[in-house]
Amino acid sequence: xSSTNTTVDAELIGVMENFDRPFRDxxxxxxxxxxxxxxxxxxxKPTKCLFLTTDGFLKWVAVNAGVFRxxxxxxxxxxxxxxxxxxGSWNVGQIRRFENGEIGFSQTYEKALVGIENAWHxxxxxxxxxxxxxxxxxxxxxxxxxxxxxxxxERRLFVKIEPWANSWSIQSMENETxxxxxxxxxxxxxxxxxxxxxxxxxxxxVLEYLEGVETTKKADKNARIKAVKKLHALGITxxxxxxxxxxxxxxxxxxxxxxxxxxxxxxxxxLKARDINRIKRIRTDMxxxxxxxxxxxVEEVSQFFNDMADDEIDWTDDSTDTEGDYxxxxxxxxxxxxxxxxxxxxxxxxxxxxxx
Length: 356
Known about the structure:
alpha+beta, globular, 5-stranded mixed beta sheet
């Protein structure tokens, strides 16, 4: 049987940041005025990737340090060549470079995907059934998508998933889904159209993609305070009420991004005041990030990758980060995630719909 009958191609649709990379230690030589590299140091863990196979399955795959050079996770990955994927029901795998120089899978196995529990909306759509137009935002984590689906007459949709199945992402998706349930039909958030699933687990949601909206400006401060007070009246605090988490559609102000929201008795007056004060003060309003308290800390434990180690002990010279990987990185290749980036309608990376 040929390998084409037992393997399929796969598209890389998401890459997680990897801060556990080996690096080359060095000292600065005054005579040559250059850094002299001495040894490899640091811990190494595989880079976490999400693939969509041509036969319609999601695969969570860890890529070892020796496969590709340097910190490639936050850059253009279109030139990377991955091995063909073995067919089968497995959903977790690991890719390494073998002693003969070839790249391939060192292991594959099947593990149950755990999603959120609050399935309040009757509409549920498998993620692999969407026509993905492109990722939204400035990063390639595989979380934010512009998409279409026949159920919605090929209208453009906003799809958000939490594909990395760690404890924090599951809780943040629970928060957002709960907010959309309480605000449903109140014109306080973008219209919620249903849950996104994979193999029966709820991993995200789909919203109406709002054409022609813009993020709010200084002149919209009072309208934003009024909108966030409506949220407070429902027993919810926002948690990250910066200007890009408010959308202006005509005269309406809509709220988005509820990963840090608190509910009922945890939505304290102190947190409500913090939401409002963040809107009032230009310094906090321009800061797109939030600082969680120790009480909110959730250890990031991955369902798929937590026990997976980089099994390549003898790293090749091109498997480590060097000074050049940092100094040559352009401003357009920023090294932070799309966490709390706010308006996902603002830009779409490669999302021009060629079908129109």
